[in-house]
Amino acid sequence: MNKEEAKVRIAELSKIIESHNYNYYILAQPTISDYDFDMLLNELISLEQQYPEFITADSPTQRVGGDITKEFQTVKHRYPMLSLSNSYNIEEVKDFITRIKKTIEEDVEFVCELKFDGISISLTYENGLFVKAVTRGDGTQGDDVTTNVKTIRTIPLRLKGDYPDFFEMRGEIIMPHSSFNAINAERADLGQQTFANPRNAAAGTIKLQDSKEVARRKLDQYCYFMMMDDDKMIFKNHYESLMAARQWGFNVSNFMALCKNVEEIEEFINYWDEKRKELPFDIDGIVIKVNDFQQRETLGFTAKSPRWAIAYKFKAEEAHTQLLSVDFQVGRHGTVTPVANLSPVQLAGTIVKRATLHNADFIEQLDLHYDDIVSVEKGGEIIPKITAVDLNHRKDGSQKVTFITHCPECGTQLVNIEGETAWYCPNTLGCPPQIKGRIEHFISRKAMNIESLGEGKVEVLFDNNLIKDYSDLYNLKYNDIFGLEKIITVEDENSQEKSIRKVSFKEKTANNIIDAIEKSKSVPFARVLFALGIKYVGETTAKLIAKAMGSIDNIINASVEELTDIEEVGEKIAISIKDFFADERNINIINKLKEAGLQFEQEKKDTAKVFMSFGNQQIISNDQLSGMSIVVSGVFSTMSRDEIKQLIEDLGGKNVSSISSKTTFVVAGDKMGPEKRKKAESLGIEIKSEEEFLEMIKGQQTTDNGQQTLSTESTSGVQGVLEFDF
Ligand code: IVH
User: Fold this and answer.
1) Residue with CA at minimum distance from ligand 1 atom 2
2) How far apart are CA 526 and CA 373, in angstroms?
3) Which residues, other chains included, contact 50 with Cβ-Cβ below 8 Å and sequence gap of 6+?
4) Collapsing DSSP states into helix, strand and coil, what is residue 344?
């Protein structure tokens, strides 16, 4: 066979083998014996060995694995990977439908799907070829696990039929029971720790460095969501898009239903709650999605999840055991949480020894006594919880469990905030677990990312009087920490197994810590704000506050009203912020952090002017939309909806998803949702067309005035012209 013939045969073999893969793994209808399949694969392997220049990225030989990933690259998601809000009973599903009906008057059709219990993945396809697989990560960025994902046979490397040039497929990587049982049996044999459940096993496997081992563990994948730029979306609804995806070669579950009302949805839920035991993989619920894309657009999103979908979680598995004792743990905000110590019991693949009792009211409602036989539930990642007491087995004279009155750590009398169920230790700045908890939060990855200080090291520094609050971290010197060591007890989250570990600050560790602390000085303001650990101010809220207020001083001086004007900030959060800064001790800590050089102001965008060209339009980046709340709706011709939204942000405006009296104006493209239009009209909110909007933000200058220009991409991903004008 000459070189040309080899090239043709390699392409031919790739096609034949992939179609057999499809028949075998997706259709479960093999049309060839295993022996014949292996012969074809061997022929391809040997030809590729002879002519490595003809190995393509989508060759079936790539599925066998072999490449090593030293470090997974972090990749920003083109479209954020959101999660779903959960419901636990049919009443909550009814509420979800009622909320939808408030916004949409026409009939709404729902797609019910299995909720696969694995790890979500985003697959990118360009011109029909699989190019990238990224894990969910924090929703905005994840890890590039392409090499490992290629080994999953149900993920097509090359598509068939009439697919779009560019799109993403979202789905779940799962570990089927057969693979899970085989791996755990093998690990037990080797004396290695077994995986607690298939989801953990799938998560651990996809992050292995050796793709050959990933291939060996036989993961599987199901697709449930197609993403592309709004103006490129060729389908009218979700169901249609999934049916097309199936034609292109994706693994789309057969177990889906189109439902018109809650009765049909309930029927689907009940059927699968029973039948799930017969599936060859785990599901932990049902996902209910609005089918029509235009209705989805009208419904929009909250900060974390779409308003057009909800997950129904199946009731967790249950076991019965005896209550031995109760511990009271103090969290970083001072909340005291009762934790039950139980007689060890097997539950959903793990041995449970401890379970949360939530708060004093919960203990009271259960009328819990020591030695009681209790029901314990565990579902997915949730910490086991006690759900009921078996009164028939209560011992005579057993003692009632009562809540403590004083902090078990510092002895301070506990307080109860009106309207809240929790008891707190008010000794915020003097109670050791609160101080350590706050410092641990401060150094965490999403906050200041001083992770080299994790795993018990904060405790060692605190016990040695080297840090009394997080600002002390910035005074630490190498010589203060080098040589420190301590034996600590750690508990494994999964197995609840306690083990003893030695924490020591050797030369490399001490250097890494000092370096990481130094580096943290450039962490952006939003993350610093999150790191401060203000009650109720999570990652997303911190971002919104930082953007709206611009600096820590503006936040310190803001009124509750000014704070509640910020998107997602309600009175509870605003009051918590005010309380935090009202404490002189917190102001002192912030002053020390300022002195250390942390970022307490929102990063300014490049002072260079950005000119973006759309046809003959020129747009100058400035703050001309500052203070405006803008709703973008419909399909646009010059750019995608996401690009318009980015442009609004770049020009200082705020994107809001629903129209209210606070909306400044609406930018409407084609097919703007009729409900949105009606609402805008009834509130007298101006509706601008795409042209009117572009006209409004258009600059007076043009780029043909002889200034130096450089063709580039704007932050919104819009092809444009970047002009430096210093
Ligand atoms: S749709 C915009 N459909 O459940 C949200 N998710 O919190 C798109 N999941 O992270 C997700 N089965 O990992 C969707 N049929 C299904 C699913 C599903 C499992 C997972 C997914 C997501 C989580 C929801």
Assistant:
1) 82
2) 47
3) 6
4) strand
Average pLDDT over residues 594-618: 64
Task: Tell me the pLDDT tens digit for each residue of 355-380.
Answer: 988 889 899 999 999 999 999 987 54
Q: Is 176 helix (H, G, I), strand (E, B) or coil?
A: coil
Task: Give me the residue spans of the domains in the chain.
Answer: 3-63, 74-313, 318-423, 432-596, 607-724
Any atom of ligand 1 within 6 Å of the Cβ of 115? yes
Tell me, in angstroms, the distance from the centre of ligand 1 to residue 394's CA.
42
* Burial of 505 from C-beta contacts in 10 A (0-12 / 13-18 / 19+): buried
CATH class of 74-313: alpha beta
| Nearest atom within ligand 1 for CA of residue 114 | 15
- Asked if residues 629 and 649 have their Cβ atoms less than 8 Å apart, the reply is no
- Taking the C-alpha atoms of residue 155 and residue 129, their distance in angstroms, rounded to an integer, is 11
Inter-residue contact 356 to 341 (CB < 8 Å): no
Closest atom of ligand 1 relative to the 84 alpha carbon: 7
Contacts of residue 267, defined as CB under 8 A and 6 or more positions apart, other chains included, come to none
pLDDT, tens digit (0-9, with 9 covering 90-100), for 94-133:
999 999 999 999 999 999 999 999 999 999 999 999 999 9
Contact of 238 with 111, CB cutoff 8 Å: yes
Task: Answer whether 0.70 is exceeded by the pTM.
Answer: no
Three-class secondary structure of residue 603 per DSSP: coil
The verdict on the CB of residue 643 being under 6 Å from ligand 1 is no
| Cα(199) to centroid(ligand 1), Å | 14
DSSP string covering 622-653, please?
SSTTTT-EEEEESB-SSS-HHHHHHHHHHTT-
**Are 547 and 526 contacting, i.e. CB atoms less than 8 angstroms apart?**
yes
In angstroms, the CA 699 to CA 619 distance is 5
CB 51 within 8 A of CB 10: yes
Q: Note whether 485 and 502 are within 8 A (CB).
A: yes
What would the CATH number be for the domain defined by 3-63? 1.10.287.610
3-state secondary structure of 670: strand
Classified by CATH at the fold level, domain 432-596 comes out as: DNA polymerase; domain 1 (1.10.150)
The amino acid at residue 366 is L
Whose CA is closest to 135, among 194, 91, 219, 76?
76
DSSP 8-class letter at 399: P
CA angle 156-186-499, nearest 5°?
Answer: 110
- What pLDDT digit, counting tens, does each position of 493-552 carry? 656 667 777 888 999 999 999 999 999 999 999 999 999 999 889 888 899 999 899 999
Cα 311 to ligand 1 centroid, rounded to whole Å:
8
116 lines ligand 1 (CB under 6 A): yes
Q: DSSP readout, 430-494?
A: T-HHHHHHHHHHHHSTTTT--GGGTTTHHHHHHHTTS-SSGGGGGG--HHHHTT-EEEEEEE-TT
**Cβ-count burial 276-300 (b if 16+ within 10 Å, e if not):** beeeebbbbbbbbbbbbbbbbbbbb
Q: Which residues are catalytic?
A: 115
Enclosing H/E stretch for 99: helix 90-103
- CA distance linking residue 300 with residue 666, whole number of Å: 14
CA distances from residue 684 to 103, 245, 286, 509, 648 in whole angstroms, order as listed:
18, 42, 40, 62, 21
CATH superfamily of 607-724: BRCT domain (3.40.50.10190)
- Whole-number Å distance, alpha carbon 595 to ligand 1 midpoint, is 45
Q: What is the pLDDT of residue 230?
A: 80
From the CA of 225, give the closest atom in ligand 1.
Answer: 1
- Give the domain 318-423 fold: OB fold (Dihydrolipoamide Acetyltransferase, E2P) (2.40.50)
Kindly state the DSSP code that residue 24 receives in the 8-state scheme: I
Distance (Å, whole) CA 698 – CA 703: 13
